[in-house]
Amino acid sequence: GAVVSQHPSRVICKSGTSVKIECRSLDFQATTMFWYRQFPKQSLMLMATSNEGSKATYEQGVEKDKFLINHASLTLSTLTVTSAHPEDSSFYICSASQGKNYGYTFGSGTRLTVV
Amino acid sequence: AQSVSQHNHHVILSEAASLELGCNYSYGGTVNLFWYVQYPGQHLQLLLKYFSGDPLVKGIKGFEAEFIKSKFSFNLRKPSVQWSDTAEYFCAVLTGTASKLTFGTGTRLQVTL
């Protein structure tokens, strides 16, 4: 079945630094990738949608300059949290899709802690 | 904008008990509906989905869900839960031509021996 690999699974960084999270579709080409943020005991909140080769579409309230998304190929998307602050600490999850009729495959998530 | 409600936040059941988790959505048009499960420390996995056809959908691990259009509901059921079903369950909806999933807040299921 379709597999999405997300790295790192856990990262601790200092306030003010940047962190890059990778999301790879291992055995399929993902036309669209999604980035979610999950707060404790809450739902997954969609941050942005990215299509290969084009700029990401950000949800309302998500700072595009802070959460940089790159979808350079059909198998790789990256989320860079720039100038991270403690309030950016969260669980970030990516999802990849070949199209809605094919379904959505999720990565295992990245626990970001900013100290 | 569409929204998804899961009214049960935390459910505790004994093994072999029957399960029903509620999911309601707010959208008047065509919907595609999903249930995902997240086992502790693991990624979200698809349990089942409804796109069209028979409103009673059977998924993996003995789960099923029924789409009731008049009630805007897509409740998840399992006749007899196992300890290994302990996990977080998320309902999600895809509306119209959108490719974005909207998730409910999730229900934590705890199955005791």
What characteristics describe this protein?
heterodimer, A: 115 residues, mainly beta, seven-stranded mixed β-sheet, four-stranded antiparallel β-sheet, 11 strands, 0% helix, globular, B: 113 residues, six-stranded mixed β-sheet, 53% strand
Give a description of the structure.
The complex is a heterodimer of chains A (115) and B (113). Chain A is mainly beta and 115 residues long. Helix content of chain A is 0%, strand content 53%. The radius of gyration of chain A is 13 Å and the shape is globular. The relative contact order of chain A is 0.33. Chain B is globular, with a radius of gyration of 13 Å. The chains are: A mainly beta (115), B mainly beta (113). The A-B interface holds A 4, 6, 32, 34, 41-44, 46, 49, 93, 95, 97, 99-101, 103-104, 106-109 and B 9, 32, 34, 36, 42-46, 49, 51, 90, 94, 99-106.
Give the class of chain B from helix and strand content and strand pairing: mainly beta
| Helical content of chain B (DSSP H or I, runs of 4+) | under 10%
Please summarize the sheet with the most strands of chain B: 6 strands, mixed
Order of helices and strands of chain A: EEEEEEEEEEE
What is the alpha-carbon Rg of chain A in Å? 13 Å
Summarize the structure.
Chain A is mainly beta and 115 residues long.
Q: How are the secondary structure elements laid out?
A:
The complex is a heterodimer of chains A (115) and B (113).
Chain A lengths: L3 E4 L2 E4 L5 E7 L6 E7 L5 E8 L5 E2 L8 E7 L2 E6 L8 E8 L6 E3 L3 E5 L1
Chain B lengths: L2 E3 L4 E5 L4 E3 L2 E3 L4 E8 L5 E7 L5 E3 L5 E5 L4 E6 L8 E9 L6 E2 L3 E6 L1
Parallel strand pairs in B: 2-12
Antiparallel strand pairs in B: 1-4, 3-9, 5-6, 5-10, 7-8, 8-9, 10-11, 10-12
